[in-house]
Amino acid sequence: MSLILDNIKKYYREPNGNRLPVLGIERYELKQGEQAALVGSSGGGKTTLLNVISGILVPDSGKVIVDGRDIAALHEVSRDRFRAAKIGFVFQTFNLLPAFTALENVLLGMSFSGRGVDRSFAISLLERVGLGGRLDHLPGRMSVGEQQRVSVARAMANKPSLLLADEPTANVDPANQDLILNLIKDTCEEHNVTLLMVTHAMEVANTFERIDRLADFNKPELALNEVSA
Amino acid sequence: MNLFSIAWKSVKQRRLASMLTALSVALGVMLMVVVIVISGAVDSVFNQRTIAYDLIVGAKGSDLQLVLSSVFRIQPPIANLPLMYLQQLKDDPRIETAIPLAFGDFTKPEDGAFPIVGTTNEYFLNEYTPGKMYEVENQPGTRQLNGHYDAVIGSQVAYENKWRVGDKFSIVHGSADSETMHDELFEVVSVLRQTGTPNDRSVFLNLEAVYTLEGHQKPVDEVEARLKDFYGNDNKRLQSALMQLEQLRVKRQKGQEIGDTQMGYGMDTPDAMKEITAVYVKTRSSFDAVRFQSELKNTSKAVAVNPIRPIQRLMTNIVGNIQKALIALTGMIIIVSGISIFVSIYNSMSDRKREIGIMRALGARRSSVFSIVLAESAVLCIGGGLMGWLMGHGLAVAFSPVVSARTGLLLDPWFISPYEFVLFPILLMLGALVGFLPALTAYRTNVADALNG
Q: With an 8 Å Cβ cutoff, is B352 touching chain A?
């Protein structure tokens, strides 16, 4: 298994001190190389779930097993390193650093993994997403579609075992939507990377063989029970 | 791509703000370097390199005033010594060289009020500072102080007055603002090349000429009283001097009788009537210098002063403190610049929250983003410091010829003070200090909030 969520509970603390349950997941699994669309309503906890899976947030209880390791049990520094090495991220708003060229943005993704920077691999990734001729271009000089392609290349830079994509086509024009979507899916397939793509657009979700509805397996009240108990 | 290059990218991203903050550091460092270069020049003027003599012999009084008046020519002389005493010094086996100086007159105020020094050609045949001999400008007609009204002038005197060999000038008596002008005209026979010493702003006349100037001769009775005071119990020398005075009295009386009012004045003035202000002395050994100095202290009305010590005291007590105050002031400017770096980086943190969130999401550790912000602050401090250091020395290179020509200070534009060696470590510490709080903000950034914000 590439990803296992086991008995995850997560709540936020509201300004008045009350606890707001967000995640209550008994079990969720993805096999290595599997691709799934995660569908859910706005405010349903999709982004929180991705943050928990990537180790940006720690669940209040439960296990998050990625590539055989429970990252929820790791110290923050180890979690950061694990995330850099094993998990790729494609954001809805691309999140490229504006002062860095396309190539530098990809290299930046490699910088924190502790494995060093592989410039030729970064270039090959950009060539793979069709940006071989735009290595030295700053994000501000690229179209939104191109920016998202850079972010896909960056997410693959450390040869992750799991790619998390948060509404990657939401800000892209319809012409580029399929291109980006196929690019992500194809690249993951080529590198046997597990893909979990969060989306609220059914036309995007429908391109996946596996479609998971968050509401089907996330029962925040479980977290509430935990809190009450 | 290391943390430093990421920090450098960030500096470049906010190019204008970064340049302005680095410039504020650069200006502070530039001022500090300029102060240091000028201080170095002042130091070199006021330290032992200024003069190649072991002792200055003059009338008893303030050691400092004797050195300031005879070496630096920025104070009036204390009192005079009999010229006959010079021979006594020359006869002393411990003394290798004794060069007489008579000063107290100046060029006219409109000619710069430069000090006049009566001396002999021997003055120019000795080193002016250890290892350095006088050189003269190669101008037609250049010669030594041979004629009675010949004058050798320093480089700054020549520069400011545009005087060349063959030009003539007159001088004023007593003090720079005196209205008593001597009638005699002096002719420039040599222009000295720049030495970076007070010689550059001095005018040298033939010692003998100084005695013949109007108003320089004192009444015989007054000279007699001074000689008696000076020689005290040294009857042999006193009697010899008094005999000369007696002969002069007779000569003048005879002149009055035959109606020759010039008889006994001017060129035939006996040595007993002549005075000098100071004597530059080179002893055969440093031991001789110390022995001679202490002997003089106990037995004579003259005093021998080591030219270095009073100046060192002056440097330590006054000039050194002023330099330190100036350096402290520029240090404050650098600290203020550091605060501006802090404000600049700290203000940018809210804009960069997302960037930091992205880096953290990509796997950057808290310590990494902390280091990036700290490195950024260090880049601004060190970069600004380096820019300021180059600007300071560049300014010194550009303006040293002008400053040297106008003030006589020989600036060494690449003079590196010990202060400069600690400058960059201090800047690095300043960078760490002012970058700490913004770096801490980066360290504490909540990644989920930063990405969603």
A: no
Per-domain residue ranges of chain B: 3-46+312-452, 52-217+265-306
A167 contacts chain B (CB < 8 A): no
Cα B57 to Cα B306: distance, rounded to the nearest angstrom:
9
B52 confidence band (pLDDT: 50, 70, 90): confident
Q: Could you read off the pLDDT of B180-227 as tens digits, one per residue?
A: 788 889 999 999 998 888 899 899 999 988 888 877 777 888 888 888
3-state secondary structure (DSSP) of residue A7: strand
Compute the nearest-CA separation of B357 from chain A (Å). 9
- Model ipTM value: 0.86
Half-sphere exposure of B241 (CA within 13 A, CB side): 28
- CA trace torsion B388, B391, B395, B396 (10° rounding): 70
Question: Of the candidates B157, B156, B159, which has an alpha carbon nearest to the alpha carbon of residue B171?
Answer: B157
B236's CB contacts (< 8 A; 6+ apart) are none
B75 in contact with A, Cβ within 8 Å: no
Contact between chains at A95 and B361 (C-beta distance less than 8 A) = yes
Average pLDDT, chain A: 88
**CA B50 from chain center: how many Å?**
8
The CATH number of the domain holding residue A146 is 3.40.50.300
CA distance B450 to chain A (A): 11
Structural domain boundaries, residue A10: 3-228
Chain B residue numbers touching A54 (CB-CB < 8 A): 361
Residues of B in contact with A48 (CB under 8 A): 448
Angle at A210 between CA A206 and CA A214, to 5 degrees: 90
In this complex, the residue of A47, A80, A91 whose CB is nearest that of residue B364 is A80
